[in-house]
Write a structure and sequence with these properties.
- The protein has helices spanning 5-8, 108-112, 304-331; strands at 10-14, 37-41, 58-62, 67-76, 82-94, 97-100, 113-115, 119-122, 126-135, 143-157, 161-175, 185-194, 200-208, 214-223, 231-235, 240-242, 247-253, 263-271, 274-282.
- By secondary structure, it is mainly beta.
- The protein folds into two domains: 11-175, Immunoglobulins (Immunoglobulin-like); 185-282, Immunoglobulin-like.
- Strands 1, 3, 5, 6, 8, 10 and 11 form a seven-stranded mixed β-sheet that branches.
- It is elongated, with a radius of gyration of 33 Å.
């Protein structure tokens, strides 16, 4: 970024909730948060009406040669009109995070995906439905694919800085003949610890033992604590997204005043309708008592007290020797 930095600088704001910050938290939300560009899924397959993930994301299993259509709603709750670009882009799952590709990078799924309208003019507080079509070719290989359908607004602020605001709907598409691959997971361990500031924490390692990617959240409760105390429920700090065969950790930060234990911990890890539970007895590490120390003043000299004590002892010795000598002379 040299030369005319005002023209060369591009500021990109990716608003991601449990991936996208601007996306309504619930599928039945009527509008986007005030002052934002919003997007939500309108169509849910009948077979997935009980699946919270399918009410938020496009989650499906298709045989090669099959087509599906899903409507999404794009809304503008800003006080000004918005020119919205609508497009599909690739995504991947890395280190427990659903990660969208930069810009409009594509993959197999984006080549199979199209949107009914690629550009919209939305007035303030206007919303419009757009149909997303996914057509899997007849020669597509079996496997799972990830992508995002984005709604994007670009604006230019004073100084010619371009601001890009985009929000989107995740796509989890499984391809293969026959029925949908199973989803399953297992809670491998529960570990009690303390944060650097001494607050109790619990981490759970979870493995994806099925054949679909999972977005894992959890709820932890504590019972049978000291004096019959209980704690919670506590929710995960953030969700974990893992591919089949992978594992990762979810974390809980608990109330600061909880005793060390022991406690009976019960965890429910969930991804849509897939649930795995674990019970374990845990005890939090005891916070060590820090020793009290006196900080010396800036003018403090470490050897001075020893010198004073030594001087006093010498003086006492001299006085004692003088008195002994005086008594001896008197007797003489």
């Amino acid at each position: 970024m040299t030369g005319n930095i005002g023209r060369a600088f591009l500021l990109v704001l990716l608003l991601l909730p449990g991936f996208f910050a601007s996306t309504p938290a619930h599928a039945d939300s009527d509008t986007a948060p005030e002052g934002m560009l919003g997007v939500r899924l309108l169509d849910v397959p009948t077979a997935r009406t009980d699946d919270p993930r399918a009410r938020t994301y496009i989650v499906d299993h298709l045989a090669p040669g099959t087509t599906i259509r899903r409507r999404i709603e794009i809304s503008n709750t800003t006080p000004a009109p918005a020119a919205v670009a609508v497009y599909e882009a690739a995504a991947s799952i890395n280190d427990g995070v659903f990660t969208p590709a930069a810009g409009r990078d594509g993959n197999d799924l984006t080549h199979w995906t199209s949107v009914e309208e690629t550009s919209l003019e939305l007035a303030s507080n206007q919303a419009r439905a757009v149909t997303v079509t996914i057509t899997v070719p007849s020669d597509a290989a079996a496997g799972e694919h990830y992508g995002v359908v984005w709604a994007e607004v670009r604006s230019t602020s004073p100084g010619t800085v371009t601001v890009v605001n985009r929000v989107g709907i995740r796509v989890y598409l499984s391809v293969g003949a026959g029925g949908e691959p199973p989803s399953a997971m297992h809670v491998d361990s529960l570990t009690a610890a303390r944060s650097q500031d001494g607050r109790p924490t619990v981490t759970a390692q979870v493995s994806n033992t099925g054949r679909r990617a999972l977005d894992i959240a959890g709820r932890l409760t504590l019972t049978a604590g000291p004096g019959g105390l209980s704690g919670g429920p506590y929710d995960t700090v953030k969700a974990l997204t893992i591919r089949p065969g992978q594992n990762g950790t979810i974390e809980f930060v608990l109330s600061a005043g909880l005793p060390d234990g022991p406690w009976t911990a019960h965890l429910d890890a969930t991804s849509g309708t897939t649930i795995a539970s674990q019970d374990n007895t845990i005890t939090f590490p005891t916070v060590p008592l820090l020793p009290t120390t006196l900080e010396p003043s800036p003018d403090f000299t470490p050897w001075l007290p020893y010198a004073l004590v030594t001087s006093v002892l010498i003086l006492v010795g001299i006085l004692a020797l003088t008195r002994a000598t005086a008594r001896k002379n008197t007797k003489a």
